[in-house]
Each structure stands twice: as C-alpha cells, then as structure tokens.
Sequence to fold (504 residues):
Amino acid sequence: MSNSGTCYLVGAGPGDLGLVTLRAKECIELADVLVYDALSSPELLNWTKRDCEKIYVGKRAKDHSVPQDQINGIIVEKTKQGKNVVRLKGGDPMIFGRGGEEAAELAEAGVPFEIVPGISSTIAGPAYAGIPVTHRDHNTQLTIFTGHEDPTKGFSSVDYAQLAKAPGTKVFVMGVARLREICASFIENGAAPNTPIALIRWATTGSQKTIEGTLTDIADIAERVNFTSPAVAVIGDVVKERKKINWFENRPLFGKRIVVTRTREQAGELSKALRDLGADVVELPTIRIEPPEDQREFVELVTHAHEYDWLVFTSPNGVERFFDAFFIAFEDARSLGNPRIAAIGAGTAQKIREYRFAVDLIPERFVAEGLIDAFKKEDIENLTMLWVKAAETRDVIGEGLTALGAIVDNCITYRTVPETEDPTGARARFEEEGADLITFTSSSTVDHFFDLGIDWPEGCAAASIGPVTSETLRKKGMKPAFEAPQHDIPGLVKAIVKYFKQRA
Fold:
C-alpha cells in the first residue's frame, strides 16, 4: 500500500539499557505508535516522541492484558494508517517472542515491516550471572527450549528424552511455574539427578537474582525463596563456572533499589552512573522543565547578552536554554561579545564548555553562597551582570551581587512544574516495592516529591546533593541520611557508594 507506514518488530533486549541495539533506539525515537509489553525496560519509553501513541499489551504468566490476535490486529491497523509502528518485545522478537506470528500477519496484510533482532535473555541472563553457555572445558553444544507451551495444542513438542540425552548446555525460559515437572522429566529420561542448574530472575537488571541447585533440589530451593518469573534457567556443568566469574552481582550497589527524582531529560546521567554500579534504578521524575512565562523578555535579554560584563549561570538547564535561544538568534558565537562567565558548579561549567565557551569563575563551594564568596575576590562594583536562572531560584545570588555593587538583571530561562505523566509505571512500582534510597538533586525535586502524597517506604533513606536541598528535606520532616560533600552528580554518586559500604 502506497500510503502504508512501516511496522518494526523490535527486540528490546533483556533489560539492561546498555544492551539495546542502536537500530532499536532509532526505531523507538521515530515511532508514531509504540506497542510494548511488560518485559521491556520501561525507560525505553522515554526515547519516544512527545506525540507518540503508546499502547501497552503486556503479557505475563496467567495475565494476558491483550490477546495475541488483538495485538496482531493493532499493529496491522496502525501501520495501514500510514504510521511508523514499533512492536517492542523483550529480548529477541524471534526467540519465543511470537515475532514470527506477528511478521506473518503483517506479510499477509501486505504492509511493510522490518525485524530488528535483540539480545536474548537466554544468552545475556547466564552471562550476567557469570555462566558461559558454552565452554571448551564443559561443552560444545547449546540447546534452547521453552518451558511454557501453547496449552491448546494438546501435546508437548518438547522431547525430554532427546533433551536428557543431548550433550551440552540446556537453556529454557518461561518455565518457573513448571520447574518441578521439567526437572522430573529430565531425571526420568536419564539425566543425572545431580546435574547443576541455575535460575536467573530479571536478568541483566539491578533486580537480578540467581539461585543454584541440582535437578533434584532446585524446585525446593525456588519454593523456599519464593522465586518467581520472569527467569531463565541454565542446565549443565557450565553452572560451575559461576563461582569464578560472577561479575555483575559483585558490584557495589547491586541489589539496592534507588529512586531518581530528577527531570526525565536529566535523569540519564545519574541513572547510568548508578546502574553501572549495579543499582536497580527507578526513574520517578517529580518535576519537568517548562519555558518561562515571559518568553519575550527572555529572548530580549539573550539577544542583548553581549552588552553585559558578566554572565552568571547557576544550573545546566539554564545554560542549555540560554545558548539554544542564543544560537537561534545568532549564527556566530562571536556575537556574544566578550563578557566573563561564572558557573556555580562543575556540572554547570561542563555544560557551558559543551557550547565551546570558557568559564572564568567557579566557586570552591557549589552553592549560591559559595559563588558570592568567590565574587568578593573580584572587583565588580558598577559592573553589569546577567543572572541566568530558573523562576523559582532563591534570591541569594541577586541580593549578594547587588550588595557587592554590581548591577544585576535576572534572565529567567525556565520554570519547574510538577511532572504529571508516568509512562513507565514507576510510581506504581515504587508504591508496591519501595526502595532503599531516594535521591534529591534540588529543593524543587523535594517539594514536588512530597506533593505526590506517596507514603515514605519503611527503611528507605533520603540522599541530598547539597545543603539547600538538605534544608528543604528537613522542612518536610525528613532528615537526609547523608549529604554529598561535593555538590554535583559525581559527588552524589560517590556519597551513595560510601553510604551503602558503611552500612554493609
């Protein structure tokens, strides 16, 4: 059809955002419609366009929100409407993901489609548990099968007699509910009862949990620890390698659920740093950035920035919005003239440098008071200053610079408002599962978090990026467990690692 769009059957990988392919990210960013399931990493939804239609068709054991035939109908219909449709599936769409069925429906309907493979949990799960599915000391063969078959078939296509006799590693998914039956079938068909087996739940994420046993006792172990799906199972001597190469579960923040309350756009830096250290990160943005109410005044001040002696930036957000507006008005960076530039902290300074401008002044303490102390060492009497700020910023800087004799104009580049959307379901997950730590990177994240009216989880601590944020927490009746000595994202991450290390 000439007016048809394209449907992309995209593998979302096993859960770790770093394992999503570049092609998958491209497709998600271009999608007009995103049809996704429960096993996709929820942060993937943040890559979509603002006007992307998101359709949840999640399926878990015994809980099919949308039947498969209806899913097929949705992707065909939306593609025929001329839209770019992404069918996002956990792992690889063609490995027990029913991608073949969906592709057949699209082909029969005569609409264009593309298959984008993803990293399967059958390979990634064992790797993140320190188990190589092939190893020259143990095996040269790998067999993958499903532990959950179509109940309407009336027979099993899994030949356990052949599986039990086959050499090498066996990997299966969707079999936790039938674990005892599967293990018994192996033993009944000649497999050694003491054959090692491991199960990895929520593989490659901060929620990963691994249990080990043998075909004889693994079902009892799973019941004892209430081990549930989704999980991948590995059978064979390769499980023994886990003792030596279990790399992921030894990271300093592994097993710790940490909430990030920054804006959706800013969360990435902190979230990635925490995930790289093994944390289970829940992105729960409490604020979002909106343009200033008086945009005409903002634009006028930006276009007259060359007239000032100093430009004072107090946040990366302010830097980004200031220079984005500046380069809309001017094509040449030299149009900024020669004002000196001050930044309140390392993160703000780094953002300025990304626009290829040098920073002339950074205070030793990354707070408003620290910036005023730094300016006391400069002669700024009768100098003009443009303070690039958020609408809600404290007046400490403006009042302090004015007291030093400077002539200060306020350039309001943005305002923070409550975040009302929750496309990833983070709030429900937080309310259900709780957390070990909630991070706060500004007073506004504190205010808006408490405005959500969510009960503070038992045993959960609060982490503060600096003294102003800490004071706001105390005003809300919550004493921060610690405050980052270095008041920026790297400093906060270091403080988090130290906090959990001391508790351990």
Observations:
- The radius of gyration is 27 Å.
- The longest helix spans residues 489-503.
- The domain at 290-417 is CATH 3.40.50.10090 (Rossmann fold).
